[in-house]
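hey m, so remember when u said the tokens were messed up on ur end? i reran from scratch. heres the input so u can diff it against urs
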Amino acid sequence: MKMAVASINWQISAKGLGVIYDTRDGPVEALADFSFAAEPGSFTTIVGPSGCGKSTLLRAIGGLTKPSSGRVQFKTDNGSSGEKNLYGMIFQRPVLLPWLTVIDNVLLPIKVFGYRVANYRNQAIELLKMVGLDDFLKKYPYELSGGMQQRVAIARALVFDPRVLLMDEPFSALDAITREQLNDQLQKLWLQTGKTVLFVTHSVNEAVFLGTSCIVMTERPGRIAKIVNIDVPMPRQLKQVQGDLADYILQVRRALEGDAGDDDIAKGK
């Protein structure tokens, strides 16, 4: 199945975004003056040191954390939109409801939004087929491996056909082999659906393999150190990490180590 790609061109942009948390020990600045734009249909990956505000950035974009300054916009040719099915979000853990079957977990957002479930059941089945779980519709989460559970979470995030997919380290808890398999599967899914994706990861190889561009963040408060545009055609193969993608991996690693010149920082912002 190829899901319908939205005819409207969507762009995610953040301008001067800042987030400050109030804690018992005083304010903590998580993000500062963060500005970027993700073009429609792009796959933007985000890497940075632990605690630099990657997840905070994604939560602010998804409306789960209120910015202290700046703004986030989902822009179209005709302006901005706040419609409720604008984005789907996938967390580090699949967060499946244990008392629901696989198919009912996928259909859960449809019930939450108050849509007619019967109208989305076939799409849910097709999505599970796309992620290789069409034989597990009536299974419960405890009967699935960790990788299979995360594939259910991906199908759930796509079932209502969101314009944007926000992914917060979705494969971090998986073993290396399963992670590579899901990277390959996610790339194919993205090519089929045409979604705009923001993907947070700690893995430089994963960020470069999946991304059309990679945002490298500084230590907290998180700012943009560099944006690396990855000019390697899709689909990609994992073996390219040692070939065509190697130079981009080196660029990202150097930026993480602080070797991003003033020109790079200016371009990133």
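this time it looks ok to me. The beta strands are 11-23, 26-38, 43-47, 69-76, 79-80, 87-90, 164-168, 196-200, 213-217, 224-229. if urs says something different then somethings off w ur setup not the seq
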